[in-house]
Amino acid sequence: MSVRTTPLPRMAGDLTFMRARRATIEELGPDNLAVLGAPLERNWGPKSGCRFGPRALRETSVYFGWHANPQFSQPVDVDARKRIDTSSIHDRLVDIGDVALNNAEGSRGKQAIGMTIAAIRTRGAASILLGGDDEVVAPALSGLRTENPCSLIQIGGIVPSCGRDIGDDRSSASRPVAAGDVALASTLFIAPAQVPTAEFCTDLAKAGGQLIEARHLPGMSSGKIADISKRLAAGKGALAVHLDLTALSAPLHGMSNTPRFDGLSVAVLQNALAAIGQAPVDCFIMTGLNPTLSGLSIVKTGQRLLVTLLLGFIYGRLRVLSSLERESA
Amino acid sequence: MTAPPDRMRTIPVATFFGARTGTLQDLTSNHVAMTGLHCDHFGGRPPAARFAARQIRYCGTELHSSVGRNLRREHLVDIDDLKVFPLEPVRTEDVISEQCARVIDTGARLLILGGDYSLAPALLGGALRAQPGASYGLLRLSSNMDLQSFDGERTNLPERRITTSRIASMLAGGVHDVALLGVRGLVTTEESNCAAGTLLVTAGQLRGDGRSRIIDRLLCWANGFSAIFLSIDADVLAGAAVEQATLPESPGLPAETVVCVLRSLHNLAIPIAHLAGHRPDFDLTGRSATEAVAAIGLELIEAMLPGHGPCR
Question: pLDDT tens for residues B236-286?
């Protein structure tokens, strides 16, 4: 029996993700969706701070910890007008803490991320990896890879320079593609933060990958996005989804080091993530939040938006909702 | 990627000093139960101390690898935060008292971290509810006496200013059962008169050469009670450790002095303690203020751990 019987304000209590119960990797099973922090960043420049992302996202997520509150066992999503059975969230969503990066130099830290993701996958569980900047993506994909390369859905971020020198390439997907951790044929890029070059589009099309620009996503149905995701998941490798904060329009949040003004709205992206969650995604990677921009520790718009988006994915992945589209009367 | 090892470790989300989380069922007389108090609503100061528990959790988890290396963590349980709602003084205190009583009923010692001093009567009330026969003394480290007169009615004064008076009214011997350490600065004549019956040690005396004699006097005073309610306010610290805590001309205590005093209390029975008044100012972990408070918290745990002064 807990000493306390009612919910807590955001800043108080056990600050696990969405007040999920704690677990260790050894306790994970195929039904679990494990939240894992990777407080890693390049750690240079005046705007460093993405390493505080996991902590900021956990604190913000506590607003959505209603599944741990018996009074809210059956809340209704006010936008979708759909009842949400929280029991499955409470049973299956667990917080396993952060990757042990303390004092580890860069390459060992990245190796630890890969090994942890691999250990989670070995137990059959899916994971949500809270970055960090996009430095966490390549090691996570490396950890997901078995004998077959992974499939990747990248939302926001920068597209790779396929087949060219990756020395100066800022895309988090470049090295995994070059290393064979990700098959370009099994990639879907949604709303990249920079306009892709014609060469990239040609290479991608030749390989069989897809690209959906930000302006086209609102016109796509949830069913179509779910179908594409399921097709990618049907491959032999694992399916990873990488969401970078640059997918969202900067006026909405202002908390990315790479602001953009033609990004996606929250409603569109949340619907898309709920649809993507219908596929058996093995690892969802969230990057790009720098909570130190304009001051740390105030619940800022960007943090709220990212957690709201994550909710869409969690609803979909745990089969709480088949889509966030409002049902016709 | 090489095959993952059998037992891959992650760092758990922050708890107080890396303790495991638990519930009332996990507590025995071998444990120190740590809980957060996210309430600073009645103390009369701007909101800040409500965030102390969170910051100490963050900071303490990182500290435990260095400062708390030898901490006997098997005796520590983080039991989450106390409920403080509804935020109406009388009802809040009743709710807090009831929770404290349930924890102390298990036999565990209770360490409350965060919040401000104005809720201390509720904490002691819980202890007295759980141990009606115990004779408690209040040992307080703070720069303030908070001994404004209390006639049973709440006044327009900030709640904190009457808190020691309220606690004294709950103790068998009144102000004679109160020891105030680390007091400094200017006090009102009324407070000075009230303090005549207490064991009063100023910050200047504690910083001076006669600290060992003071501690002997303190232990002699404490041995007259079956249990001690230990209350430490972060404002006792010098301004170098805690910003805005003091005026330059009346410096507070260095954290080392507070730790030294706490170390001398290891043979006392301390069933309940409160580390209050830390105003973390939304800081990052590693800032000196939170580190100083966390270091005091670690020493407080050592003083409360089983083996040091069983509850009588």
Answer: 987 655 544 444 455 789 888 999 999 999 889 999 999 998 888 655 555
Contacts of B85 in chain A (CB under 8 A): 6
User: Has this prediction a pTM greater than 0.90?
Assistant: no
In angstroms, the CA B225 to CA B210 distance is 24
* Cα B246-B250-B253 angle, rounded to 5 deg: 70
* Contact check, Cβ <8 Å, B81/A116: no
For residue B274, what are its two tokens?
A: 């409160």
For residue A36, the chain B residues in CB contact (below 8 A) are: 10
Per-residue model confidence as pLDDT tens digits over B43-83: 777 778 888 898 888 876 665 544 555 678 889 999 999 99
What span, in angstroms and rounded, lies between the C-alpha atoms of A155 and A187?
11
User: Which ipTM did the prediction report?
Assistant: 0.79
Which residue of chain B has the CA closest to A116? B8
Judged by a CB distance cut-off of 8 A, whether residue B36 touches chain A is yes
Question: Taking a contact as any Cβ pair under 8 Å apart, which residues of chain B between 257 and 286 contact chain A?
Answer: 282, 284
The domains located in chain B, with CATH, are 30-304 (3.40.800.10)
Subunit contact B284:A95, Cβ cutoff 8 A: no
Long-range contacts of A217-225 (CB under 8 A, 24+ apart): A217/A190, A217/A191, A217/A264, A217/A268, A217/A269, A217/A272, A218/A264, A218/A265, A218/A268, A220/A272, A222/A271, A222/A272, A222/A274, A222/A275, A222/A323, A222/A324, A222/A325, A223/A275, A223/A323, A225/A272, A225/A275, A225/A276
Q: Tell me the three-class secondary structure of A303-315, residue by residue.
A: HHHHHHHHHHHHH
The Cα A109–Cα A92 span in angstroms is: 28
**Residue at token pair 């969650």:** A277
| Whether B8 and A25 lie within 8 Å, measured CB to CB | yes
